[in-house]
Amino acid sequence: MTRAVVLVSGGLDSATVLALARRDGHACHALSLDYGQRHRVELQAAARVAEALGAVEHRTMALDIGWMGGSALTDAAIPVPNAPAAGIPLTYVPARNTIFLAVALGWAEVLGARDIYIGANAVDYSGYPDCRPEFLAAFERVANLATRAGVEGDGFRVQAPLVALSKAEIIRTGLDLGVDYGLTLSCYDPDPDGRACGQCDACRLRSRGFAAAGSPDPTRYRPGVRPPA
After folding, report:
1. Which of the four pLDDT bands, split at 50, 70 and 90, describes residue 28?
2. Backbone dihedral angles phi then psi of residue 39, each to the nearest 5 degrees
3. pLDDT of res. 45
4. Which CATH topology does 3-188 take?
5. For residues 210 and 182, is the Cβ–Cβ distance under 8 A?
6. pLDDT at 225 over 90
7. Which pLDDT band, with edges at 50, 70 and 90, does 215 fall under?
């Protein structure tokens, strides 16, 4: 059985990707990053997801990039937006996926894994530049230029199977593979118990995805919060 490194945030997309990597026949090594995110309760969801979907191991790496600021997800002085905005949103974290993939690449080379899975999506998403197919293809080229495995001809593949799917299509795919989305957390501003705010962009995209998929939304919301329309 081949090995794969799968980036697992604890959210809906990464859970689906882990299920797809397992379906593809890989022994899945799940990797989560504790990067200084305000919503670090998502790491508990990542652990639940990794166990439920049969990862052979799950590592959580502490790599604080929050000191940089510049994002509502890492800087307490920047409120998490509760309404869509034009352009790249304040929840964009500078260089996050570049850093995540670089860490995954190093671990993959040590493990002898040649597939790195990431839940990037460029359809129903918040407009992050590091979720686009062009970025993922460019990183794959870098991976094969910058590593011994790549230079010796045994290169890496960056697998982003959700990149062209709508949120509803992602949810249907995961349900077909037995993903329990009640274990996941997508909210950017949850409370300490992991209950969703119902206002942020991630909550809106998730709620609309379940509605479009015709499936009940298992999200736990804060008391008094209604699911977003």
Report:
1. very high
2. -100, 45
3. 97
4. Rossmann fold (3.40.50)
5. no
6. no
7. very high
Contacts made by residues 140-149, CB under 8 angstroms, sequence distance 24+: 143/101, 143/105, 143/116, 146/105, 147/105, 147/109, 148/109, 149/109, 149/114
How many C-beta atoms lie closer than 10 Å to residue 90's C-beta?
Answer: 18
3-state secondary structure labels for all residues of the chain:
CCEEEEECCCCHHHHHHHHHHHHCCCEEEEEEEECCCCCCCHHHHHHHHHHHCCCCEEEEEECCCHHHCCCCCCCCCCCCCCCCCCCCCCCCCCCHHHHHHHHHHHHHHHHCCCEEECCCCCCCCCCCHHHCHHHHHHHHHHHHHHCHHHHCCCCCEEECCCCCCCHHHHHHHHHHCCCCHHHCCCCCCCCCCCCECCCCHHHHHHHHHHHHHCCCCCCCECCCCCCCC
**Angle (CA) 132 136 141, round 5°:** 145
Tokens of 208: 């609309």
Query: With the CA atoms of 215, 128, 121 and 146 taken in that order, what torsion angle do they form, in degrees rounded to the nearest 10?
Result: -150
pTM (2 d.p.): 0.96
Band (pLDDT 50/70/90 cuts) for residue 127 is confident
pLDDT digits (tens, 9 = 90+) for 32-49: 999 999 999 999 999 999
